[in-house]
Amino acid sequence: LLAPTEVSSPSLKTGTYILISVGALTMLMGFLGCLGTVNEIRCLLGLYFTCLMVILITQVAAGLVIYFQKETLKEELSRVVGSMIENYGTLDEDERNLEDAWDYVQSQIACCGWTGAKDWEKNKIIINESMTVYPCSCFNSSKGFQADSHFCNLDVPVNGTATDADWPIHKQGCMDGVEKWLKDNLGVILGVCTGVAVIELLGMILSISLCKNIHSEDYTKVPKS
């Protein structure tokens, strides 16, 4: 029996919980905003403003943490991905979605392994097969047809054994591929983040304006003595 595989980390789990919390808060915020606007309830509009402000501050804080802790995050990802690659193909059903996600990354970014294809030389199944199989998601489509499975067989094994140099795969590591993708799409990412921040600021301004209008209307309705 294989020992349980550690394919996660405290940092990644914390990030996941934060994203889930922000998503739930966003849904609640939208509901409160609509309810407060339709019924002209000042306290709900105030709560809507507060939620928007908390989300905006959280986003800015998360961006700063990622920027200043990027080396630590890179080390965490390297450890997690390395453990997943080593046990790829032997994980249970509950952890199979991690393999599918990694297959998607490798096929879409056209990369193999975290630092390179040599990372796969530590995989238990590949070692047992004397390196005559390789991950299909690493396959270089310019070299032929890719089978739809976890591992592909070499057409002509060299003396029954092989190395990663014999695999018809992409040579670029996914770490470099992801960094290149981020640099190429930096303008789009910054544009989207700026757009989201502007929309949130507009929502805050509109909620404050509605609160003031409701307060003014309530004041004018109060009978003068």
TrEMBL record:
<protein>
    <recommendedName>
        <fullName>Tetraspanin</fullName>
    </recommendedName>
</protein>
<keyword id="KW-0812">Transmembrane</keyword>
<dbReference type="Pfam" id="PF00335">
    <property type="entry name" value="Tetraspanin"/>
</dbReference>
<feature type="transmembrane region" description="Helical">
    <location>
        <begin position="188"/>
        <end position="211"/>
    </location>
</feature>
<feature type="transmembrane region" description="Helical">
    <location>
        <begin position="45"/>
        <end position="68"/>
    </location>
</feature>
<comment type="similarity">
    <text>Belongs to the tetraspanin (TM4SF) family.</text>
</comment>
<dbReference type="InterPro" id="IPR000301">
    <property type="entry name" value="Tetraspanin_animals"/>
</dbReference>
<keyword id="KW-0472">Membrane</keyword>
<keyword id="KW-1133">Transmembrane helix</keyword>
<feature type="transmembrane region" description="Helical">
    <location>
        <begin position="17"/>
        <end position="38"/>
    </location>
</feature>
<dbReference type="InterPro" id="IPR018499">
    <property type="entry name" value="Tetraspanin/Peripherin"/>
</dbReference>
<dbReference type="InterPro" id="IPR008952">
    <property type="entry name" value="Tetraspanin_EC2_sf"/>
</dbReference>
<dbReference type="GO" id="GO:0005886">
    <property type="term" value="C:plasma membrane"/>
</dbReference>
<dbReference type="InterPro" id="IPR018503">
    <property type="entry name" value="Tetraspanin_CS"/>
</dbReference>
